[in-house]
Amino acid sequence: MNYRRVALAIGTLSLGLSLLAIVFPGLVAVTLEQVVISVVGGVVLLQALRVMLVRRREDRDEAVPPDPERPISTSPPGEELEDELERFLGDRRLYFPRVRLREGLRAAAVTVLSQYGPHSTAEAEEAVDAGTWTDDVYAAAFLGDERAPTPPLRVRVGNALRRESPLERHVRHVVDAIAAAAGVAAPSNEGASKRSGQQADRRAESSNRTARNRSTGRANDVRNTTDPETNDTLRRATHSTGHWTGVSVVALVSIGVGILVEQPSILLAGTVGIGYAAYARSSALAPRSVSLSRTLSTERPEPGEEVEVTVTITNDSEQALADLRLVDGVPASLAVTDSSPRIGTALRAGESRSYTYAVTARRGVHTFGPATLIARDLAAAAEQERELYTETTLTCIPPLRAIPEPIPLRAQATREVGHIETATSGDGVEFYATREYRPGDPMSRIDWNRRARTGELTTVEFRNERSASVVIVVDTREEAYVSPDPDAEHALDRAVDAAGQLFVTLADSGDRVGIASLGDNACWLAPGTGVDHRDTARELLATHPAFSPVPRETRSVVVQHRNRLRKRLSAGTQVIVLTPLCDEFGGQFARRLEEHGYPVTVISLDPTASQTTAQRFARVARRLRVSNLRSNGIPVIDWDWDDSITATLARFNERWSR
Questions:
Q1: Closest residue by Cα to residue 297 from 248, 361, 234, 236
Q2: In degrees, to the nearest 5, what angle opens at C-alpha 560 toward C-alphas 558 and 562?
Q3: How far apart are CA 589 and CA 569, in angstroms?
Q4: 217 close to 385: Cβ distance less than 8 angstroms
Q5: How far apart are CA 141 and CA 505, in angstroms?
Q6: Distance CA 179, CA 649 (A)
Q7: How many CB atoms are closer than 10 A to CB 461?
Q8: Cβ pair 329, 232 in contact under 8 A
Q9: What segments bear the compositional bias annotation Basic and acidic residues (predicted)?
């Protein structure tokens, strides 16, 4: 609405009426009092029109409380197919999306055929071009040249009636054909799309929940003024919610009409609405008028233990607070398992109200965030948003449990007594060979049974053993926070638990064991032995920020930490790398250590899923990374998601003992 034009029109009309009154006094029989009343009434009605137009353009300005009931979930590898294709495209610059998609899939097909089939690279390229690499005509036609077969006309007409686009159909067939060539089984069609949709909905819900959990209200109105004494933060000052904006329009219309028709009763009705409009701009909450306290049933629970959280809110002011809505700052890594961390209440002056909810403890240090308080007046016309801070920390340190299976270490060159068997004689407990007696041999080494039988003096030798110096490296990058299901624990959690089991098992065998992280937050524990060393390792795995149950919001250069970690390794140190191998970085790190002479063993938990096309392709890409490491002489223990680390090592040891 152009207010200048309206004002110009009103001014022009007024000027015209004035001229008529001057030229023809009898024509316009209007007194000055009537003119003033009419002008005032018109102005009030114009203001009502302006408020109504503004109200139509704006929504209610009410704060949105956070949603902390469930922890932040993770997603499986393969969110975007284009990201997975980057590995196969290399440095090739292809600007058209369809061309990039086709060339990336073609390179993947050639790689899989040459890796898992009897084809060389040239033969694989020829098979893909000719369309003979698969029985799927859609896959063959999409990647092949003019020699490739095409789907029958009847099938193409039937597919044209489906909701799936031709490009999506071809890509799905190509990925399934590549997966079949790599030995990755495709899921059954029944229920696959349903599960895929459910997972997509859960991921979207998780994303929305995360966004709501980290910000409330409108970002352009956030003040974030912190009280230096209480650390409480005023996120938004007292503002109108817009709940009673329509009352202003009704009030102004009533006043304007009452003035024009000179009816006091109508004018009086408008003043009631003006009272509501003024009430909407009153103060809802004075500074430091509400305080918060929080207590835990235990601050150091065991993993899986239910912890009760009791929150108390107190009205420290001298006036009643009609509408208080409080949401506690539950750590993003903890799930609420009983009751709710939110409450709505009204408090008289000096009154307190407490409520209790429960969370399930998990590994790590979990610091509660500030509670969000939304205070409104009785009419919900004005509100204020605050963050109430009180320091509360829950620390969960799991015990270290040994694995009842030997850890498959590789040969190394130290000469200390310990775990690794060698092909030379020396100190030990396992029989190695006998030799002729030499002066100075210990009496305990003489084979007295043979002396009694044959009269010969011989000395028994035992197999020499060496202790291993081992560093367990856990991939803690953001790429390790993945899982096949959004509601399952992520790969990093399971890797940290496995690292603790590997540590205590190797330590029980007499090896010197250390711990390190491969990520943007460096953690390093040099190889050592002893009770204090075990306690330090247990504390690090549970509390160090590198092993946080939730991804870090800030990131640094991982390559610098990787190079620093390599320089810390002493000669002959064995390295066990725990990584999901969902990208190239973990495999490159293992190969780099192997090239520098450090024996590396990779234990890789498989977090991939197969419900969507991109997820199946991500599973194929991971399997190729495993094969590439093995072809470079690096042992890879492929850990299935549904198996424990104990069962995985038992199966690996059984296979290698044959």
A1: 361
A2: 70
A3: 14
A4: yes
A5: 53
A6: 26
A7: 18
A8: no
A9: 60-70
pLDDT tens figures, 526-552: 999 999 999 999 999 999 999 999 887
Residue 303 CA to residue 485 CA, distance in Å, equals: 21
Q: At 235, phi and psi to the nearest 5?
A: -75, -40
Q: What is the pLDDT of residues 207-241, one digit of tens each?
A: 444 433 444 434 334 455 665 555 567 666 666 66
C-alpha to C-alpha distances, 48 to 9, 10, 118, 591, nearest whole angstrom: 18, 16, 82, 74
Q: How is residue 614 written in tokens? A: 């991109």
Q: Which residue has the tokens 């001298």?
A: 318
Phi, psi of 459, rounded to the nearest 5 degrees = -115, 135
CA–CA dist 451, 443 (Å, integer): 12
- Provide the token pair at 116: 């898992």
Look at residue 181 and give its three-state secondary structure. Answer: helix
- Separation CA 39–CA 47 (nearest Å): 12
Q: What share of the chain in percent tops pLDDT 70?
A: 68
| Distances, alpha carbon 366 to alpha carbons 25, 104, 115, 380, 399, in Å | 85, 43, 45, 35, 18
Q: Which backbone phi and psi does 54 adopt, to 5 degrees?
A: -65, -40
Rg (CA), the chain: 37
The CATH number that domain 290-396 falls under is 2.60.40.10
Q: Hey, what are 171's tokens? A: 């890509």
For 406-444, letters b (16+ CB in 10 Å) and e give ebebbebebeeebbbebeeeeebeeebeeeeeeeebeee
* CA dihedral sign, ordered 620, 621, 623, 628: positive
Q: Is domain 469-657 classified as CATH 1.20.1250?
A: no
pTM above 0.85, yes or no: no
Q: State the sign of the Cα–Cα–Cα–Cα dihedral 407, 413, 417, 423.
A: positive
User: Helix (H) and strand (E) counts for the chain?
Assistant: 18, 20
Neighbours of 77 (CB within 10 A): 26
Gap between the Cα atoms of 458 and 449, Å rounded: 10
Which element (helix H / strand E) includes 605?
strand 600-605
List the end-to-end C-alpha distance of the chain, in Å, as a whole number: 86
Cα 328 from chain centroid (whole Å):
21
Provide the token pair at 535. 């306690």
- The encoded tokens of residue 322 equal 């009609």
Q: Which helix (H) or strand (E) holds 593?
A: helix 584-595
Q: Is residue 611 scored above 70 in pLDDT?
A: yes
Is residue 567 pLDDT above 60, yes or no? yes
Q: Which amino acid is at 451?
A: R
Distances (CA, A) of 590 to 90, 113, 128, 492, 563: 20, 25, 32, 18, 12
* SS3 (DSSP) at 187: coil
For residue 453, the one-letter residue type is: R
Q: Cα separations (Å) of 341 from 232, 286, 325, 338?
A: 19, 24, 11, 9
Q: Are 291 and 306 in contact (CB under 8 A)?
A: no
Which runs of E-coded beta strand occur in 519-588?
524-528, 574-578
> What residue type is 4 in one-letter code?
R
Take residue 383 and report the two structure tokens written for it.
């509100």
Distances (CA, A) of 552 to 1, 218, 481: 49, 25, 10
Distance from C-alpha of 548 to C-alpha of 300, rounded to nearest angstrom: 17
pLDDT value at 473 more than 90: yes
Cβ(219)–Cβ(228) under 8 Å? no
SS3 103: helix
Q: Please report, for the chain, the start and end positions of each structural domain, with discontinuous segments joined by +.
A: 92-183, 290-396, 426-463, 469-657
